[in-house]
Amino acid sequence: MHPVITFAHNVLPFTKGWPDWVVYVAIVFVVAFGILNTLVAPLTGISTYIERRMAGRAQYRWGPNRVGFRSLLDALPVTRWIGRMGDIGPVKAIGRLIPGGLLQFAADGLKLFTKEDIIPAKADKFLFRASPYVVMAGSFAAFAVLPVSFNFRAVNFNIGIFYVLGISSLVVPGILMAGWGSANKWALFGGMRSASQIVSYEIPVAISLMTAVMLAGTMNMTDIVNAQRSGYGIEKAGALGWYVFRYGGLMIVPFVIYFIGGCAEVNRTPFDLPEGESELVSGYHTEYSGFRWSFFFMAEYSNMFAVGAIATTMFLGGPLPPYPVQLTEQLFGGMGHLGMVLRFLEGFAWFFIKSYFFVLVMIHMRWTLPRYRVDQLMHLCWKVLLPIALVWFVLMCGVRAVRMEMKLAAQPAVAEVTR
Amino acid sequence: MPVVGLEWFLVIAAFLFATGVFTILTRKNAVSILMGVELILNAANVNLVAFSRFVKPAATLGPQSVEFPLQGSAAHAVYGQPWIAGNVFAAFVIVLAAAEAAVALGLILGIYRTAGDVDVDEATALKG
Amino acid sequence: MRYDYVGVLVYLALAVVFVLVGMTAQRVVSWFLRTNRPNEAKLSPYECGEEPIGGTFIKFNIRFYVMALVFIVFDVEVVLLFPWAAVFNELYAFYRMALFWDMLIFVGILAFGLAYVWGKGDLDWIMTFRKHLSPAEKVARPQSRKEVA
Amino acid sequence: MIAALGLAVKNPATWVFLAFAAVTCGSALVVAVSRSLVYSAYALLLTFFGVAGLYAFLDADFLAAAQLLVYVGGILVLILFGVMLTHKIRDINLSNESTNPVVGAVISGFLFLALAYVSLMTDWQVVEHPASATSGEIGRAFVGKYLLPFEVSSVLLLGALIGAAYLARREKREA
To answer: Is the interface score ipTM higher than 0.85?
Structure first.
């Protein structure tokens, strides 16, 4: 019996009469729906708000600052009265605490929803319509194997990270579909650039992820997380067990390569050549408008989160906290169902904080760094990142082999038995 | 218990193969012909994996006694599960397909440059 | 195992249904809320208000293609190395350093390929082809990448 | 036979399988007969995806992902680039004419019938082994039994890389 089904039977007794596959599909559907509605759709909105506020800070202008809770409060008579009390310090401070513009994304969404849906006359209607499906499927399906909390994931795929690499390659034909279907010079050119950039950077990314896979000895993401519970021979290692800090910091290099490549794969500044506003209007989705366009936008932000989440899982211990996880395991272990819930929330909180940190870094990078030129981009990928990633992979294999030799020398009996 | 039997996969693979052959026979465009070749390779791969899943492995893989070695045993380490052979072959076919696609598209590019078209009927000269 | 595929299928289906529901809902809303007045200007290719000149399908830089050719070779290398990486820990006690040399030969051969295309200038985005030009042409062409920039 | 079919009809997985089979075969047919080159290429995307689904039904998890990674993310992109680069494109619908469709249909139809006949009429010695993760087994095969093909495939890839780069580079001398 699959553990998910056992879990469902225990927690929701009424499912016992259902066929197994119905229970499984229902549970996975609920989890996937939850992820779609917490990590993809609203997070896109919140991220756009944060991004625009940060852009405002970086460029000395306001971001969205009108639509939001503050305006809602302003509409109420009581708060209007408070507001009339004027510039009394504490009142002003409270006003500052409630950020304006927080609901801007909802307003934007509503606007996109009611906008005219334009399909250019010359466009290939079928490819034009089909593209958002492919792009959305490719970027959302990668969320299936992410371990969002301790031993909690929708799908415990044993080829986890390899599956992520495979399914996210659906995005590339999707982008070319949009570029071709639009029948627009810039869309087509942006699509070509985007596809070529994504596939190029996939190589250093995959090799640096492979380094972590080699150390963990498995591709299953949950097992990779569990391999980071201890390190340096310490059982309760906490943050020291994460792969970035293991092997005397040697793993920082693959991690940095992964993150640079990940930024390039989501096509954001400084790697936003496919949609460089000054040359191509906005890349492969130039011709898209209204709600259809928002799917590309959603895919971009969920891809950003996925890049952060994979970096977190493979190098930063995923849902593992920086303190020894065994402490809370003992603490919550004796608390029954409440303990289970708390433990889930603890893991999810750490996973989310670490992953979202990378999203914030990417946003910050976008408003700090200038854009690469296309030859510099390819130079960086093929002549800098790829050789370093390959050399580092070999180096880490060597380090690992030496470590294993030492371990085997310490216990020769085991080696004899295996032989 | 597998969902469906071996024959289903074989028939689907045969269909893929036939469409691939049809594409190669009837198309004039070199890129289309390459697509036909990819279909055929996929058909072969489906066959290999289906046999790997369903058909008893030949005893020639590894020592006679080792048909399904125990997980973690030395025989398992050296020979793996013998039924995996089909999967490994399919992996090598994927390698072959990638190499073939790269070289074929390089050739197509060459034909396009010299002839200005990728119609295989026109590409009769060996030297451009 | 087989349940995992079902889970993946649920994710793919949910993504498709999400887009489908969104587009359908938008269409429903359009009946009574949304404007829908296409005209010739709206339906023409968007080129910042300029009249589009020529067709859409310009000829592309051959570089895109060369990058894709190099990419696919390394893509396959990654596919072959992943299973190797996954069993390295497990089999080390059995094979010892032989396992490492296996990988090193494999990676080394492909690294040679990388060195070859690098040395031949296939990885340069801007090709000057100075080698194949007459001396007079060489003068006319930009000499370094910096000048191109 | 009939009882087995009855069981299969009741199993929802059979229907999913049939859907994948239909997608695979249908899109392969589109690849073969479509009048537009770009539609052929995108139908090939569906075919590759459907074949990955068939691998999933055959418990070949690693190959299913490798199929997506290499075929969809690599070869298909290469083919699409090839379509876009090697054409004097005037229209969005690239024509993709075919010749002798009757002869081709007869030959390939005959091939299909012969292969299907052989597949259905042979008494296959089917054996059950437990469905298990294949990636570890494939890794074991790569360093053990199939070490030589593993290493030789890198030589093949090297040859392909050098050859493709040479072919793509060559003409510029004249230009």
So the answer is: yes
